[in-house]
TrEMBL record:
Lipid bilayer topology: Multi-pass membrane protein
Keyword Ribonucleoprotein included in the entry's annotation: no
Keywords for the protein's UniProt record, in alphabetical order: ATP synthesis, Cell membrane, CF(0), Hydrogen ion transport, Ion transport, Membrane, Transmembrane, Transmembrane helix, Transport
Pfam families noted in UniProt: ATP-synt_A (PF00119)
Species per Swiss-Prot/TrEMBL record: Pannonibacter phragmitetus
Top-level taxon: Bacteria
CDD domains in the record: ATP-synt_Fo_a_6
InterPro entries: ATP_synth_F0_asu, ATP_synth_F0_asu_AS, ATP_synth_F0_asu_bact/mt, F0_ATP_A_sf
Cell compartment(s), UniProt: Cell membrane; Membrane
Summary of the function given for this chain in its UniProt record: Key component of the proton channel; it plays a direct role in the translocation of protons across the membrane.
Annotated GO CC locations: plasma membrane; proton-transporting ATP synthase complex
Protein's name in the database: ATP synthase subunit a
Transmembrane stretches, start-end: 30-47, 84-108, 114-134, 141-165, 185-209, 221-242
Family named by the database record: Belongs to the ATPase A chain family.
Length: 249
């Protein structure tokens, strides 16, 4: 069981709770969602508490995170998009911290659960849809008819754009979920090779050097993927929010 690469993704009930026949149990996934929020909040509060003129390393990290997300949002949705900064920054920090916490042994990777990533993606798409209709009314539907399309092609292009829009939460959630799931499975498989081969004596221990090297390399790669997936999720969020601000573009 220790070498089972799928076992690390199992949902376990920690505090059983049932209300009206509905299972609302507190699970290991819920626990690490709470841990993720607390860790991200503690980092930002601690790093910004001193607010020194000459920033400390922690303060510099917090300020770099702020400017990094703000720059992404300005480039993706324009200056007007800064009204969504609290949402976008919260999503970036949540995904990044969740990905990084999942790299610790015996910790749970909540972004490896499709229901978690789909909920985050739906939050983005619902924000785009609700704000788009609230601000532009029916003109928001211009999003599905790109500027410059000949009238004869509108019946063909519009359904394609609608399908593309509806597929966004699926692609956004599956991209994050699949990368984290596949990466952790691969890492666990190579780590399992090290344990299995080490138990075969001297020859096995010598042969375990190769999978051990691969495990170290994959660990470094997974830290990079943890950041890249948070970046991609946030970047796409900025692009989608731009559609809510400028649906006719």
């Amino acid at each position: 069981m220790a070498n089972d690469p799928i076992h690390q993704f199992h949902i376990k009930t920690l505090v059983p709770i049932e209300v009206g026949g509905i299972d609302l149990s507190f699970t290991n996934s819920a626990l690490f969602m709470v841990v993720t929020v607390i860790t991200a909040a503690a980092f930002l509060i601690f790093s910004s508490s001193s607010r020194g003129l000459i920033p400390s390393r922690w303060q510099s990290m917090a300020e770099l995170s702020y400017e990094f997300v703000a720059g992404m949002l300005r480039n993706g949705a324009g200056t007007e998009g800064m009204r969504f900064f609290p949402l976008v920054f919260s999503l970036f920090m949540f995904v990044l911290v969740a990905n990084l916490l999942g790299m610790f042994p015996y910790f749970y990777t909540i972004t490896s659960q499709i229901i978690v990533t789909f909920a985050l993606a739906m939050l983005v798409i619902l924000t785009v849809t609700i704000y788009g209709f609230a601000r532009h009314g029916l003109h928001f539907l211009h999003l599905f008819v790109p500027a410059g399309v000949p009238g004869a092609l509108v019946p063909l292009v519009a359904p394609i754009e609608v399908i593309s829009f509806l597929s966004r939460p699926i692609s956004l959630s599956v991209r994050l979920f699949a990368n984290m799931l596949a990466g952790h499975i691969t890492l666990k498989v190579f780590a399992g090779f090290v344990v299995s081969m080490s138990a075969m004596g001297a020859a096995g221990m010598f042969g375990a050097v190769l999978p051990l090297g691969m495990t170290v390399a994959l660990t470094a790669l997974e830290f990079l993927v943890a950041f890249l997936q948070a970046y991609v999720f946030t970047l796409l969020t900025c692009m989608y929010l731009n559609d809510a601000l400028h649906p006719s573009h």
